[in-house]
Each structure stands twice: as structure tokens, then as C-alpha cells.
Amino acid sequence: MKNKTNFAKSKVSSRRRFIKSLTAINLLPFITSTTVNADNTKPVRSANTFAVPPLASGKRSGKTVNFNLKLGVSQTQFFKGVNTATLGINQSYLGPVLRAKRGDKVRITVENQIGVGSTLHWHGMMLPASMDGGPHQEIKNGESWVSEYEIKQEASTLWYHSHQMHQTGAQVYYGLAGLFILDDDDSHQLGLPHEYGVDDIPCTIQDRRFKRDGNLSYIDSMHDRMMGMEGNTILVNGVVTPLLKAQRSLLRLRLHNGSNARTYQLAFSDERSFQVIASDGGFLAAPVTVKSLRLAVGERIEVLVDVSDRKVVQLQSQQSSGGGMMRMMSGGSEPFTVMTIDAEQVKESAHTLPKTLRAMKAIPDPKDAIKTRQFDLQMGMGMMGGGFRINGKSMDISRIDFEVMRNSTEIWEVRNDSPMAHPFHVHNVQFHILDRNGKKPAQIESGLKDTVLVQRGEVVRIIMTFPEYSDSKVPYMYHCHILEHEDQGMMGQFVVV
Ligand code: C2O
Ligand code: CU
Ligand code: CU
Fold first, then answer.
1. Ligand 1 atom closest to residue 161's alpha carbon, by position in its atom list
2. What is the pLDDT of residue 335?
3. How far is Cα 6 from Cα 423, in angstroms, rounded to an integer?
4. b vs e for 229-241, b when ≥16 Cβ sit within 10 Å of the residue's Cβ?
């Protein structure tokens, strides 16, 4: 399946250059041997200052919080003096961190000025289907869309991103994504670091590949198309392997995998232990001490890191653990740096590590499930794609795959007999993992989740109770969150009635 990217003609030269670079996407898979070798651009490996994304708290009037987001075409300097064509939301690359509280009614106006259709999806949010921002809520170029819903879930780190049919991979890759932090009444009373950008730090981790001319390179080969697009340069909040000058001795990092395809296995260079406090949909019952953790595409994990030793330490990742065949970042199995934390100047934190966080919502009883469904993640090796399927079917926007009853509990069994791992994501719910191949999940996966990595050869059972929203016409999506897989058909649709 070819990506059709017909950007509207424009007199703006930056836009024209951008159009050129995106149009090349259509041709690249078929001319791999003559493609510029992107691996020659050596990223600047040090001294890029960590960037805290701007925080958008919206304009309040009563219970309603208004946000305005504008999707636009821009240029970003990832490398000094080199302009890279990008897409951004209220800024040149990525978007602001939105913040709202349980009980708020958010009203988000999204204006699309990128030259082609787009959408903005609220990943992890429980909300009416027509407000979800999936492929059915396309915003034509030059138009606006208003998404309005009440926040009915607990404090968590969610995110938002383009979900344009067949274009999600390209649009997210160029920059259409951001974080959405939710608070609730007692999330500030847990004694956790919570000063935004000071000791409570969002970290959107992405990998990108650059061409010699400084522009991003998206899909250079059949390999990229099949395995998903992995880059050779790490960005955190849009900055190449940045240096964070820590200000407090206890840091809370909101780690978010905003990559297209890469799974990270994160650990510190000195193998220090740290605490996991939250997964996709909210806090765990108590902090869990780990030395490393896996973060698949779409997942968020909040951690506490004690840097009171005032050292300089790297947050690193092992090479992708996502698949059998994978692109090596630097040839070997050496870990690569995601970011550096310099704690030399820290002030002592007023916070200490809490013993417990909060009582977790009980996992629904499997006996209460009125339905068990099977999902088989499949990838054929066809030259033109189309081999990406769930239960033998490739995504068809005019086909509803099944109906779910509102307020009902279901078990979904997700099976992966394909040659690589797939992060499975469901819209409109926060689920619990019942088991992986019959075994209880690790403690850090015991909380609320909206995305779960299903390894090859694995069957993962998840359980969830669907919210009260119903709409017999507008569906929600479930899909693999490797964006190239999603774009090529590893996605389906359900309605809640
Ligand atoms: Cu994060 Cu269907 O998306
Ligand atoms: Cu989603
Ligand atoms: Cu996949």
C-alpha cells in the first residue's frame, strides 16, 4: 500500500521543501539502492541542553478548560545551523504538554495548517468515540475541529498524536505528537516531586534518521516498512541526546516512548536502581524498584531517580529488544545513550521515596467478563504490504469488526505468532494484564495500561471494563502501535453500544 502525501501547493518555500521531502516517501521503498545513506549524518553527541516542553494549562472558565492547538509546517534545528523540515503543534516540532484535572471538561480546538488532512488522537483517554481523534475525525487542511469531553480518569501521563489514515507514521515522525498530563484530587498529596520541569520532568523519547541535507528520512527500505521505522539518532523532547542539569536530588521522570517502532530497554550507565511509580493509566500501588525497564512504542512509565550522589550518569538503552531482525544503531550490542543527567548542582529534594502510592482499582474479576475475544497479530511478507493483519483482516475504515457493550467487562487474548514483537493498543480503555503465556505479569505491569507489548510466541490476556460512552456509528480503534504496521493494516475498529 502506497502512502499518498499530496501536500497542497504553497508559495511558502519552507513548505515547498517540506512537500518535496514528504513526496519522496512514496518512492523510497522502490529505490532503496540509490537512496542517500542517512547513516552518515553524525549527531552531535553532547552538550545539547535538555528542553522542557512548554506547559499548556488552558484557559479556564468554570469547569471548562479551553486549549487551542495548531498543527503547522515548520523548520527545526536539531543540529546547529542545519534546518530540518518538521511538523509541529503550536511550535516547530512536537507540541506543548497539556495539563488538566479529573472533573475538568476540556475543550480542545485543533486547527490544521499542514497542507493535508490530519487528526489528533488522545491516546489513553476514556471519551466519546466522536471526540477520540481517530481516523474518522479527519481535519481537512485549513479547517478546525473541536474535541470536548470530561476527564473521568485518574492522574496519569497520556499523550496525543496524529492518527491520520495511512499517514500516522509519517505525521508523527515529522512531529505531530505531545504529552497530556492528568491530575486528580490526591495526586499532589502523594509526596511525589511535582514541580513541572524542575523535579517532575516529561521525557518523550524518539529515534530519527537524518539525510545528509539535514532533513528527516522516512522509510528508506523494505526493512523499514516491514520492521517499522527505526532511526539512528535519539531525541528527547526534540533534542538530540540531551544533557539535563538536575536541580533536585530526587527526580521524577515521565518516560514516554514516542518513537514509531523502537522498543527501549532503559537503564542507567552505573546500573543504579530506581523506582517505577506509574504505568500508562495511573499510579501503581507502591513504588517498584528496578534496574532497567522495557518501554515499547506508546507506553509511558513514571520513575523516581535518586541523584543525591551528584554524579553524571547516562540513561541508556540496550539495542532494540523488539524483534528478531533489527537495525543496529552502532553496529554492536553496546548500549546507546538516550540522555545524560548531570547532578553536580542539585539542591536537596523536599521529597522522599514514598512507601505506598495509592490503593489501586481492583482488577476486574475474570468471572465477570461477558465475552472473551481472540486477536491474532499477523504479518505477511508481501512486497506491497497488505500482509499486516489482525485475525486475517487488514484495516478497512468502512468495516466495523465487532460491537462491545458499554459498562461491560471483556477479556481480550492477543496472540503473536509473527516474527517480531508488537505493542497492542486499545482506544477508550485502561486495561489490566491478566497474564503473559499464562504467567502473571511483572509488578511494573500490574497497574493500568493502554498499550502492551506482545512478544513473538506470546499470548497476552488483558481485561477491561468499557466506559459508559456509546455510539453505534463511530468506532474506536485497536491496533499495533508500530506506526508503519498500523498504517499498513494491523488495525481494527469496534463500536461500543
Ligand atoms: Cu496512540 Cu490509536 O493510538
Ligand atoms: Cu490511542
Ligand atoms: Cu506491529
1. 1
2. 92
3. 29
4. bbbbbbbbbbbbb
What's the gap in Å between 273 CA and the centre of ligand 1?
Answer: 31
Output 307-311 pairs: Cβ under 8 A, ≥24 positions apart: 307/246, 307/249, 307/250, 307/251, 307/341, 307/343, 307/346, 308/249, 308/250, 308/343, 308/346, 308/348, 308/349, 309/343, 310/343, 310/344, 310/346, 311/270, 311/343, 311/344
Helices (H) and strands (E) in the chain, counts: 4, 32
Taking every pair of Cα atoms in the chain, the longest distance, rounded to a whole number of angstroms, is 62
Find the 3 Cα to ligand 3 centroid distance in Å. Answer: 18
State which ligand 1 atom lies nearest to the alpha carbon of 451.
1
* DSSP assignment letter at 329: S
Query: For position 39, what pLDDT does the model report?
Result: 39
CA 212 to ligand 3 center in whole angstroms: 29
Q: How far apart are CA 88 and CA 177, in angstroms?
A: 8
Residues contacting ligand 1 via CB (< 6 Å): 121, 123, 161, 163, 298, 425, 427, 477, 479, 481
Q: Which residues is 395 bridged to in the sheet? A: none
**245-266 pLDDT per residue, tens:** 999 999 999 999 999 999 999 9
Rounded to whole angstroms, the Cα distance separating 120 from 127 reads: 14
SS3 287: strand
Please check whether residue 409 is in contact with residue 431, taking contact to mean a CB–CB distance below 8 angstroms.
Answer: no
Mean pLDDT of the chain: 89
Q: Which residue's alpha carbon is at the smallest distance from atom 3 of ligand 1? A: 123
Distance 355 CA to ligand 1 centre (A): 33
Torsion of CA 268, 272, 276, 279, to 10 degrees: 20
- Which ligand has the minimum distance to the alpha carbon of residue 489? 3
